[in-house]
Amino acid sequence: MPRTPTQPFLIGVAGGTCSGKTTVSERLAELAGGDHLALIKLDSYYVRRTRPPGVERTITNYDHPDAFDWQLLNDHLAALVAGASVPVPIYDYAIDDRSEEVRMVHPAPIVVVEGILVLYEPQLRERFDLRVYIDTDADLRLIRRLERDVRERGRTAESIIAQYLATVRPSHEQFIEPSKRYADVIFPQGGLNEPALDVLRARVRELTVDGTIG
Predict the structure, then answer these.
(1) What's the CATH code, domain 9-198?
(2) How far is CA 73 from the centre of its chain?
């Protein structure tokens, strides 16, 4: 999408569950600084739920495109590009729904959007000036997801594996992995690939010294 020098530089970071998207995005945020980079996570835009939390987790496919409020995310990005702050929802994994709180995200010269399907949705994908896909082996992603969901979300290993087999893996193969074709940069070995990360960090540094930032 054509952009003017005054518009923010938009970066999309996609990849499978626990591939290292957050690691890459947060390291870029640390490099650029809070005044220069706004970070938005696709997980914030899960649609609101209508059934009891215990039921929702067993029947909802959280890795399917229909699980996300694409219109709201696109509206928020358009507002950020126009120079307005936006109230990003806060998703509460304990209740499997959005909380009543929001996180205000302010305009910044660099905007990073990270999430499993940010290169899948056409309107969102076309907004990005740089598209990144974090490519990590499935076995490593599953191990990381097991560790994370047991530690941070109080789930059992059995429920995590059942969900992975029922919805996570099929959605990855149908929607997420194919979106890799749209990436400008692919990170093999995920967020631990320091040479690939150096390339991305160099691009951010260029933005901070060529007049785009500051």
Answers:
(1) 3.40.50.300
(2) 11
